[in-house]
Amino acid sequence: xxxxxxxxxxxxxxxxxxxxxxxxxxxxxxxxxxxxxxxxxxxxxxxxxxxxxxxxxxxxxxxxxxxxxxxxxxxxxxxxxxxxxxxxxxxxxxxxxxxxxxxxxxxxxxxxxxxxxxxxxxxxxxxxxxxxxxxxxxxxxxxxxxxxxxxxxxxxxxxxxxxxxxxxxxxxxxxxxxxxxx
Length: 182
Prior knowledge:
6 helices; zinc-finger; two-stranded parallel sheet; Znf_C2H2_sf; two-stranded antiparallel ribbon; zinc ion binding; Matrin/U1-like-C_Znf_C2H2; mainly alpha; metal-binding
C-alpha cells in the first residue's frame, strides 16, 4: 500500500502543467467580409447515403475548420459561426471595444452634419397635391383602358364584316356562330 501512495504522488508531481496559449484574443465586431453562400452553387458533390452532421469533415455540408465540424445547411452553419463554441475556438472575445472620446465626438459630428444636409429624394411635398396627382393618373389609366376596349370591339366588328355580302352569306348559311333559337 505504501508503494501505491508513493506512485500516485509521483505521477501528480510529474504531470505536465497546463499552459495557456499566448495568442491574443480578437474582439467581435461587425463582419467586414461577406459570407459567400453561392460559391458552391451548380457544383455536384456525391454524398454517401449515411452522411449526416458529424465531425472531421467526413460528411457533406458546410465544414468549420476551427471546430472540425460539418453542418448540413447554411442556416445551422451560420448559427455555429456565431455560437460561443466557435468564438471560443477562434479566440474571439464577445465584448465590444470601448470608444475613445475622440471617436465619440467624431461620430456626433457626423450625425449632426447628416441631419443638417438635405438628403436625396427628401424634397418637401404637399399631401393634397400628391393625392390629386394620383387621382389624375388613375383617371388617365381608366380612359386609356376604355379606349383600348372600344378599339378591340371595333376591330372584331370589322373582321365580321370582312367584305362578304350579307345576302350571299345568308343564302349560303354563313350567318355566324350565334344561337339558332329565337
